[in-house]
Amino acid sequence: MLDHLGVQVADVEASAALYLRLFGPIGMAEAMRIPVGDSSVVGLSGPDGGPDFWLSPARGVETRELHVAFRAPSRDAVDAVHEAAVAAGVEVLHAPREWPEYHPGYYAGSSATPTGTTWRRCTTADEHTVTPPVIL
Fold this sequence. Notes:
InterPro entries: Glyas_Bleomycin-R_OHBP_Dase, Glyas_Fos-R_dOase_dom, VOC_core
Number of strands: 8
Strand order of the largest sheet: 1-4-3-2
Largest sheet: 4 strands, mixed
Domain VOC: 1-124
Shape: globular
Helix content: 10-25%
Distance between the termini: 11 Å
Number of domains: 1
Protein name: Catechol 2,3-dioxygenase-like lactoylglutathione lyase family enzyme
Oligomer: single chain
Radius of gyration: 15 Å
CATH topology: 2,3-Dihydroxybiphenyl 1,2-Dioxygenase, domain 1
Number of helices: 2
Order of helices and strands: EHEEEEHEEE
Strand content: 35-45%
């Protein structure tokens, strides 16, 4: 249903570097960069290459939290993102585990940036299932 998501951040460069470092294990890469004033708008993509997660400069100070979920191809990828978050010193809210209350096989962890943005990494329990992981 969603085509893309844009998030306004205080520091686009630092935020893009953090997202790329943490989510490299699930194939996140920079797809586009558009100069805007003294900053940029950065389009990040998954393995398909289409920019669907955008970071742009905030126009003012915000303290609202935001939940963003990225799809992962396997539990190993979820664990690799968790390890990258720990290595980067990011606050871990929940270590990866199965969350059956969402749906059978839902495996995720979550972390928070210093600005309060949260994200989840998810996959199904059966890595060979035909049904793709569901991210809400």
